[in-house]
Amino acid sequence: MRQNLLKVYLDDNEWDRIVDMADAVAMPLSGYVRAFLMTQKPPAPKVRGITSEAVAALNRNGALLNQLARIGHASKTLTAADIRELTAARERILAIAKDMNGDLT
What residue ranges do the domains of the chain occupy? Predict the structure, then answer.
C-alpha cells in the first residue's frame, strides 16, 4: 500500500503538458508520473495510434458477444453455424486485443 505523498507545484502549462503525456499512453496521471520518476524516462505507449475510444469499443463488442453467447446457450437456440460465427468473432476480437495490448490469453 502506498502511504507516502510527493507534493509538486506546477503552473497550468506544466500541468496540461503532463496530463497530455499521460493521456497519450492511456495511463492514469499518478501511474504515469510514478513510472516516469522511477525509470527516469516516460513510459512508451503500447501501440501507437490506439485511442481510449477504440479500446472502449472493443470492450463493448466483447461484452455484447458474451451476452449473445450466454442468451443463446440458455435458450438452447444456437445452431452449429451460430456457434461457429460466435467463435470466429471471439477470435477476431482477441486478435485485435492482442495487437493493441500484447497477449491477453
Answer: 1-45, 52-101
